[in-house]
Amino acid sequence: MLFRSMKVNLAFGSKLVAVSSLLATGLASGQAPPTVEQGLARLGISLDRASLQYALHDPRPAARGAAAAQLAFLKVTDAIPEIEEVIDHEENKMVVFTLAQSLNILGSAKGTIRLESYCSSTDQPPGMRILAASDLSDTGDYKCLAGVTEFLNSKDSGIKQSVLLYMLHIDRKSTRLNSSHL
After folding, report:
1. Could you tell me the mean pLDDT of each successive run of 10 residues in the chain, 182 residues long?
2. Are 128 and 95 in contact (CB under 8 A)?
3. Quick one: which of 20, 15, 10, 12 has its CA closest to 40?
4. Which 3-state string (H, E, C) describes 17-45?
5. pLDDT of amino acid 150
6. How many beta carbons lie within 10 A of that of residue 11, not counting itself?
7. What is the pTM for the complete model shown?
8. Contact 159, 127 (CB under 8 A)
9. Is 11 helix (H, G, I), strand (E, B) or coil?
10. 127-130 contact pairs (CB < 8 A, 24+)
């Protein structure tokens, strides 16, 4: 269930929907989480690069996560050093995850390493591990495939569905998976 609530639409790939769980805080039950742009507007943050980079230091976790997500969506690679600095001092686990996703999308090895540690850590909940593996596969990294296929044996049907969605998301034409990934 965590996977579906955090990453609503796999088709968006680089559009980090995981941050929607941070932005949805305080919404009535049943309300759809806002888009990143709507969340930023609700938080009073403009969509220009300078405002987004400034928001990386906002005291509100949702603002920091949404700003990083939007910078990744806009492919603002010159924000990598600042996001890398912020992730080293961030205490909110959801924001750390969103910062790692953003860095991974922007091509930073630090983001990739963080996501790989999420998907390989048995201390992380299955949904988080599957989401990390999915985000890595969006950038062509399939090292976590074997680690998440173990959840196909889960008694939780939501977790099984999440793994299957992840596996369906993998572009078989460009992947050329071999036995080292399985």
Report:
1. 33 43 53 77 93 96 93 96 97 93 95 94 90 88 87 88 82 48 46
2. no
3. 20
4. CCCHHHHCCCCCCCCCCCCHHHHHHHCCC
5. 87
6. 7
7. 0.78
8. yes
9. helix
10. 127/1, 127/2, 127/3, 127/6, 127/159, 127/162, 128/2, 128/97, 130/3, 130/159, 130/162, 130/163, 130/166
Based on C-alpha coordinates, what's the Rg of the chain? 16
User: Quick count: other Cβ atoms within 10 Å of Cβ 141?
Assistant: 16
Backbone angles phi, psi at 33, to 5 degrees: -65, 150
Interatomic CA distance for residues 95 and 137, integer angstroms:
20
Q: What letter represents residue 19's amino acid?
A: V
**Tokens standing for 75?**
């492919």
Tell which phi-psi region holds residue 90, choosing left (phi > 0), alpha (psi between -120 and 50) or beta: beta
Residues 9, 137: contact at Cβ < 8 Å?
Answer: no
Task: Collect all residues with Cβ–Cβ distance below 8 Å to 135 and sequence separation of at least 6.
Answer: 18, 101, 104, 105, 115
